[in-house]
TrEMBL record:
Protein name: Purine nucleoside phosphorylase
Matching SUPFAM superfamilies: Purine and uridine phosphorylases
Transferase among keywords: yes
Start and end residues of each Nucleoside phosphorylase domain: 64-320
Enzyme class, first EC level, given as a word: transferase
Ligand binding (a purine D-ribonucleoside): E239, N281
Entry GO MF terms: guanosine phosphorylase activity; purine-nucleoside phosphorylase activity
Biased composition (Basic and acidic residues): 15-24
Keyword terms: Glycosyltransferase, Transferase
Ligase listed as a keyword: no
GO cellular component: cytoplasm
Organism listed in the record: Drosophila mojavensis (Fruit fly)
Region annotated Disordered, chain positions: 1-24
Length: 326
């Protein structure tokens, strides 16, 4: 590896006997070589266990259902009864969320008689966090006792049949980050979490999807509830027209910047997964000079705020259905 001084040298260069002035490395140059830590070693089992023990001890509750609140959907955690609140910055070894609409706290309590824990604020790849860190809280949930993961997100609707404010129950995903070889499971596998090669064919629990569809009928919102395919891109930019067209050709109905790596981690440790996207904007798939066709975070937050009550009721009723079979 060339040293910084060598490559910036504008004057005459003295060659070594081998003929290459950059071949001989000094001890200082060798120390500058950085070997990245494999993602799976960023948070080893013992560290995850320490975080989980801290939460269980502090709350006095061993939760059964974990909820990840998407952008603008933090009110899902506000409906939890007898809440014990943990700010992320006060949890040992826990990252901090930096995105508007993500409060950055963990709430543990009861909902419809079930013990639950909810993340008000998730971690995103575009914040500079590796995927293993983004999905680390899912493993914390597992070691706290969580059996079911509810993952929610705000997403752009690619399917032309979707309207702003609709809810898409996720039954599959296209992992674009995975296409690039980026996975939360990269590195040595710890069998205490799960197998080396987990299957993802049935990642989203069909029974929970069917129950959510029935609940939507009783709520009178079945016309605005769909079942579809989600895709996660790295962000933080919204997608180009060409990218959206390509995703639509692949069968993607909604697109966002989260959730997929959390689902992968949850399935790796054998959690049952239910996930839905709140469609907060319609993705433009035709070229236009209109500013209205451009997505914005303000729009996302406004739509999420307007649909909070509906999303909370859907989640509450589904939690009640799970509790019935407990």
């Amino acid at each position: 590896m060339c040293s910084r001084d060598c490559c910036n040298n504008k004057g005459p260069v003295s060659r070594t006997k081998e003929g290459n002035p950059c071949e001989k490395k000094t001890q200082k140059q060798e120390s500058e070589i950085i070997v990245p830590t494999p993602q799976s070693l960023l948070y080893p089992y013992e560290v995850i266990q320490e975080i989980a023990d801290f939460i269980v001890k502090g709350s006095g509750i061993r939760p059964k259902i974990g909820i990840i609140c998407g952008s603008g959907l933090g009110s899902l955690a506000d409906i939890i009864q007898n809440p014990k609140v943990f700010d992320y910055e006060k949890i040992p070894n826990f990252p901090v969320s930096t995105v508007e609409g993500h409060a950055g706290r963990l709430v543990v309590g009861t909902l419809e008689g079930a013990n639950v824990m909810a993340m008000q604020g998730r971690f995103h790849f575009y914040e500079g966090y590796p995927l293993a860190k983004c999905s680390m809280p899912v493993r914390v949930m597992k070691l706290c006792g969580v059996e079911y993961l509810f993952a929610t997100n705000a997403a752009g609707g690619i399917n032309p049949k979707y309207a702003v404010g609709d809810i898409m129950l996720m039954h599959d995903h296209v992992n674009m980050l995975g296409f690039a070889g980026n996975s939360p499971l990269q590195g040595p596998n710890d069998p205490r979490f799960g197998p080396r090669f987990p299957a993802l064919v049935n990642s989203y629990n069909k029974d929970l999807i069917n129950k959510a569809i029935e609940i939507s009928k009783t709520m009178g919102i079945e016309s605005s509830v769909h079942v579809g395919v989600y895709s996660c891109l790295g962000g933080p930019t919204y997608e180009t027209i060409a990218e959206l067209k390509a995703l639509r050709m692949m069968g993607v109905d909604a697109v966002g910047m989260s959730t997929v790596h959390e689902v992968i981690t949850a399935r790796h440790c054998d959690m049952k997964v239910f996930a839905f996207s709140l469609i907060t904007n319609k993705c433009a798939t035709e070229y236009s000079d209109k500013k209205d066709d451009e997505a914005s975070h303000d729009e996302v937050m406004a739509v999420a705020k307007n649909r909070q009550k509906t999303c909370c009721e859907l989640v509450s009723r589904l939690v009640a259905e799970i509790q019935k079979t407990a």
